[in-house]
């Protein structure tokens, strides 16, 4: 009797083509909801297509691009087996970087890397991405789901995305427009958003030993529910402001905290003076600070402290900006101002907070 052996297969190596195909079928209905008139074709091509003839109405269109992920927040989504919001976070991280320069987000692509394709789970991730794109006014024109057995565990995954936007050259926002006397307006965050989770997990889960199903009275829900609160997406709100009134700059508050991110749009020789007494951070920030016995300056370098986006505007725009944001159900307030010297609050250009939280 002769020896017979079975040849190696992709499935035996841990990659299932069939599971990947099923995931694509399950996600199609969600991707179809995240479209724009300029999108050409549908899901399944080698590249997403966008009709650039729409740019003819621009005098000098500038394309803006951004890419990001959501960091270790994905570990919490995996631990809670809840995967339909992490894509929302991904969109927020990308499109709100685009809108900072005044660019309208046009389209996104995503990359989902998994240890093993669970079709329903992948579809839930894409559902969140598509819903985020709808909230941002942009299209989801394509993506990639890659199965990497041996690199990731069967239930592990990561997500990343890239987006493209467009802005008229003479409408470009940034440090070049900022002047002494400008007013800094804060827009409230929905929570932690998608930055600082390595710190939060270290403090609350590792050091304190809290469980994700722990009921936290200050939060009014479980710890896991609080930590998975989706990132607020501000792109349409910021575009509404830029179209209706004069805006000099936006700052998306992500890794590095409020002062460091605002400093990126403050020109040399000017300084942002911000008052902690104008708002009270949400309980989750106080909890992390207390449990981790963290100094105020240390936690401010990592977390957004309840402010997700900042606008720098001339004084005559303040009332209009606040009224527009109120109409759009975005909590906002005057946070500080721009001065032509550091004054008593800091010794260098950039941004600094003073006072105590209200």
UniProtKB/TrEMBL annotation:
Could you tell me which residue ranges the PurM-like N-terminal domain spans? 60-167
| Signal peptide per UniProt | none
* Cellular component, GO, one term: cytosol
Q: In which pathway does it act?
A: Purine metabolism; IMP biosynthesis via de novo pathway; 5-amino-1-(5-phospho-D-ribosyl)imidazole from N(2)-formyl-N(1)-(5-phospho-D-ribosyl)glycinamide: step 2/2
Q: Name the Gene Ontology biological process terms.
A: 'de novo' IMP biosynthetic process; adenine biosynthetic process
SUPFAM superfamilies attached to this UniProt entry? PurM C-terminal domain-like, PurM N-terminal domain-like
Record-annotated membrane-spanning stretches: none
Q: What is its main location?
A: cytoplasm
- Which keywords does UniProt give here? ATP-binding, Cytoplasm, Ligase, Nucleotide-binding, Purine biosynthesis
Q: Which Pfam families match?
A: AIRS, AIRS_C
Residue intervals of the PurM-like C-terminal domain: 179-344
What catalytic activity is recorded?
2-formamido-N(1)-(5-O-phospho-beta-D-ribosyl)acetamidine + ATP = 5-amino-1-(5-phospho-beta-D-ribosyl)imidazole + ADP + phosphate + H(+)
Q: Where is the protein situated, by its record's location annotation?
A: Cytoplasm
GO molecular function terms attached to this record? ATP binding; phosphoribosylamine-glycine ligase activity; phosphoribosylformylglycinamidine cyclo-ligase activity
Q: What is its EC number?
A: 6.3.3.1
Matching NCBIfam families, A to Z? purM
Family designation: Belongs to the AIR synthase family.
Q: What is this protein called?
A: Phosphoribosylformylglycinamidine cyclo-ligase
Gene that produces this protein: purM
